[in-house]
Amino acid sequence: GMMGFSVVLGIIFTTAGLYLSYLFDLPSGATIILVAAAGYILALLMKK
């Protein structure tokens, strides 16, 4: 259910953040957080 969905989202956000941090030579932790925040904002916008 919801726990499995959150695990999948975590994996997606982490993988995307690591990929972007490697691609643009950015700190990985901050990039993962920014990707997760962008996903959160996107979910809020889609909810309306």
What does this structure look like?
This protein is mainly α. It has one domain. The protein is flat, with a radius of gyration of 12 Å.
Blueprint (SSEs and pairs):
Elements: H1 2-24, H2 28-47
Helix pairs in contact: 1-2
Give me a quick take on this structure.
This protein has 48 residues and is an all-alpha fold. 90% of the residues lie in helices and 0% in strands.
Shape by Cα distribution: flat
Tell me the number of structural domains. Answer: 1
Helix content: over 70%
* Average pLDDT figure: 97
Would you tell me the structural class of the helices and strands?
A: mainly alpha
Number of discrete helical segments: 2
Spans of at least 5 consecutive residues whose pLDDT stays below 50 are none
| Biggest sheet descriptor | none
Order of helices and strands: HH
User: What proportion of the residues form beta strands (DSSP E)?
Assistant: under 5%
Q: Terminal Cα separation, in Å?
A: 23 Å
Features:
single chain, 48 residues, 2 helices, mainly alpha
